[in-house]
Prior knowledge:
The complex is a heterodimer. By secondary structure, chain A is α+β, with helices and mostly antiparallel strands. Chain A has 14 helices and 12 strands.
Amino acid sequence: xxxxxxxxxAGNGLLANRLPSSLTMxxxxxxxxxxxxxxxxxxGASVQINNQVQSLGANVIYIxxxxxxxxxxxxxxxxTAQTLTQTDVDAINNRQQAPDIVAxxxxxxxxxxxxxxxxxxxxxxxxxxxxxxxxxxxxxAEGTFFTDDDVAARHRVVVLGQTVVxxxxxxxxxxxQTIKISKQSFxxxxxxxxKGGTGLGSQDNVVVAPIxxxxxxxxxxxxxxxxxxxxxxxxxSVVTQAETEITTILLQRHQISDAxxxxxxxxxxxxxxxxxxxxxxALTLVLGAxxxxxxVVGGIGIMNIMLVTVTERTREIxxxxxxxxxxxxxxxxxxxxxxxxxxxxxxxxxxxGALLAREAPNIPAIASSSFPTPVVSAPSVVLAFCxxxxxxxxxxxxxxxxxxxxxxxxxxxxx
Amino acid sequence: xxxxxxxxxxYRMGRVEVxxxxxxxxxVGRGDFVAIMGASGSGxxxxxxxxxxxxxxxxxxxxxxxxxxxxxxxxxxxxIRNRKIGFVFQSFNLIPRTSALHNVEMPLVYAGExxxxxxxxxALVAVGLADRAHHQPTELSGGQQQRxxxxxxxxxxxxxxxADEPTGNLDxxxxxxxxxxxxxxxxxxxxxxxxxxHEQDIARFATRVVELRDGRIVRxxxxxx
Lengths: 415, 225
């Protein structure tokens, strides 16, 4: 029996039971729509995270103090040691020793209430040096960044991110205004251009000041602590070499011969990206699996209608057997019918899912939230279609086998 | 064409064994037109099922067109039915929602043979139903449906035409037409026809009448048409 004939017979069978067939198809349609849509959301989240991490700069390397070891060798937790110094930063900034590094900056973090007039706001204050915009890939939108003189003289100047400006100043021009951080006065000299990005902590919610100023006025008793060093490699492709150079410099400077005992840790943007991707992949898989359950339910619907169909068409099966259909012919006929049903439902589900994914960003409630824009990927479409056809095959086997095993005489007698 | 030797068939109804056929010896030659008669319960349906390769005998030998079919498996029987037997049923048994032409093509589909449409049309012409080729069974009269069924039985050019009460659901006018058609196919094309019936009037068209009672042949008589 050829495929065209089988498809014609299957079509005939489905048309004979229009309503039940459509309802069964609806079951698969909903399942496939859910799979396509949820996987698209997972993909969207992945793309969003990627973009965000990329916006931080793909060539950035973070250097953290490692776990401090107490006298008994007790590890005291990530970042507890204060092993990084300004001389480490200077060494990494030495082009002879670290040719693949463009610049390295020290970072000192401080939290604090920020006030301007009657407005107040909370944002972390970052103490650093003049290479900050280069390393962290910030543009100045207004005013200027602070200068080496500001750093040397501990001038109380700050550069603000757009989110901070919006919250404190409203429509007032912030340049030249004085704000207070933890009751200390600072003059605003510049505003960063918006970087965008949500989720992982906004890149625009920043206050940046000279590190010497932060040490002098904000970190108080903790002294000249460098919580991390951020270095930027000359290109994303030399990040690995740059990491090696930094490790060599710091091991040598800290007089550590065994790299496993290092009192610092490196993390590149690539590492963060990999982590984020594995989370996004897991998210996509979980969403897909949840949607997959509805596909299984749809498959049971297929089995149900195929069993009904086989019973209703017992006589037809008898006739076909009498005129020479073998078991295989009957089996294939009903399997194809089940697969046409589920495949058609799957194709429609893909169409509906893709349509919803495309229209989702136009829905105001979604557009205004940070919900990721769904991205329908070709593999998910192909997979969803194949899975829906496979479900027809799987759930069609039992009914089709039942049809194929009918005895022709009894089937012919069936009323 | 057909040789039955010592055919028996016993059905099991729970613990009771019911003998339906108790040793049938029958030879049907090429070009014969045999009517198998008998009251209900005489075993004529069982005999028809065995001749039609829908069932296998409990014991005995059945040669159909030189092939011993008594011990074949399901798929082999399906192949024999497809190639060597053309069925005509009492209730026509056309496949619903399928045009006469497609119904007639069906055995060729299972045979995997080409030129189906042309051969199906030819068969419809032979039974005088060419103008109804694209009608569905529900759009045909009983007589027309039975003609389509006969065309379907003929299309594979089978060794025998096996008609089980072909006029049972037809009015007398249509019955006459169908029987004339079968007689013509026998007389002019030399088709071997085995007819199962309980009506004398219908058996009259055959050239040989075999009568069954309690699973045995009690009469085997040739008559000139």
